[in-house]
Write a structure and sequence with these properties.
seven-stranded parallel beta sheet; 9 helices; binds flavin-adenine dinucleotide; five-stranded parallel beta sheet; Rossmann fold; alpha/beta
Length: 334
């Protein structure tokens, strides 16, 4: 049953290393509006950690987004992510504001932060959700894959706030203007004074794969599975992707067999993508893979088995041998 002491939906507005608000925040915000409506229009708030005098730069990003309150902490000690500092301030804020729902993006940072906060608050956390809803009792119904992805479980949390993390690209952002005034509330950080920071992050480095293969925002993703068999298959896949301006991705067995790095693995234990076009080459279409790509606008599958499950979700299916079809296509493009 809804707790009368807790109200509203709180979201984490994570800043990227380049000092932008992470896109996953806007995806969660879209969902938060839907949940808020179902709860009778409850308040939506955001939490932001920034280095001194930087909040002015972010205020514009909240314009017309329908965020009622932005709680922010500005402190030199918050310039780089610190598990202890961030989780301490976040936890104390949640105790004070008492939201009924707390949503955090399942980024590397969010995955570190969320369990810390939930254990400090003695509440439950449903991680890597693929759907969020409000049930007939007004509780957060958080759905995520379970039993190795074979089943979808909808999980209810008994304590408050009801916490969930959602990976980037799971929810879609619609460009709707929400005309709500946003109040910016600066919060005190002096609580950090007596706190020891055990881990100091010195520098963040982008991996080369991320730099050259920006999968998260790619319009076209060209993914390869075990049907590509070996390095030669993945070289051909890369040529194909280069030709059509796509980013390369892979299935888990392809990664486990050393054909691709984990950073480009799609699926339950990899990334979620939502490109305009997803071309699945030599991929059977196991649910653990499709959960990471089935929201693509158009799915094209190339597979030599007409009964491959991937054809069940493909908009365009090409039954045939990848090693015949793709070279032929590349030849025609010369
Ligand atoms: C807990 C758990 C988590 C998992 N997480 C993930 C995950 O995040 N991502 C993921 O991808 N998997 C994941 N898996 C593995 C998943 O269950 C499947 O095993 C995997 O997705 C299958 O990979 P695949 O399609 O590359 O290989 P296969 O299932 O071996 O399929 C290869 C396909 O290629 C086709 N093919 C063969 N030769 C050719 C050719 N010459 N031309 C065209 N087609 C050809 C075949 O017909 C077949 O359909 C997970 C499994 C578990 C248990």
């Amino acid at each position: 049953m809804p707790d009368e002491n807790n109200s509203g939906i709180m979201l984490y507005a994570q800043l990227t290393h380049e000092n932008y608000i992470h896109t996953v925040f806007f995806e969660l915000l879209e969902k938060a509006h839907e949940l808020s409506q179902k709860l009778g229009g409850v308040e939506i708030s955001a939490v932001c950690f920034a280095s001194p005098d930087t909040i002015e730069g972010f205020k514009g990003a909240f314009q017309n987004m329908g965020v009622n309150k932005v709680y922010y902490f500005e402190d030199k000690r918050l310039e780089k992510y610190s598990t202890q500092y961030y989780s301490k301030l976040f936890t104390e804020l949640v105790k004070e504001v008492k939201p009924e729902i707390l949503l955090i993006g399942a980024t590397n940072q969010g995955r570190d932060l969320a369990p810390r906060i939930s254990s400090s608050l003695h509440t439950g956390l449903t991680a890597d959700c693929i759907e969020l809803d409000i049930n007939e009792k007004g509780q957060l119904a958080a759905t995520r894959p379970t039993f190795g992805g074979e089943l979808m479980a909808t999980i209810l949390c008994k304590n408050y706030p009801q916490m969930a993390t959602v990976r980037p690209n799971v929810f879609k952002v619609h460009s709707v203007d929400y005309h709500a005034d946003t109040e910016f509330i600066r919060k005190d950080t002096s609580i950090l004074d007596g706190l020891k920071n055990d881990v100091e992050i010195i520098e963040f480095k982008k991996t080369i794969e991320n730099e050259i293969n920006n999968l998260d925002n790619a319009d076209i993703v060209v993914a390869g599975g075990m049907g590509l068999k070996n390095e030669k298959g993945f070289e051909l896949l890369q040529k194909f992707a280069d030709k059509i301006g796509g980013s390369v991705a892979a299935t888990r067995p392809a990664v486990e067999n050393g054909l691709a790095p984990h950073s480009i693995q799609i699926g339950q234990t990899g990334k979620t993508v939502r490109p305009k076009v997803y071309i699945a080459c030599g991929i059977s279409g196991a649910i653990q893979h499709t959960v990471g790509m089935d929201k693509a606008e158009h799915i094209i599958a190339i597979n030599n088995d007409p009964d491959a499950p991937i054809f069940g979700i493909a908009d365009t299916g090409i039954v045939g041998d990848f090693f015949e079809i793709v070279p032929k296509y590349l030849e025609l493009q010369h």
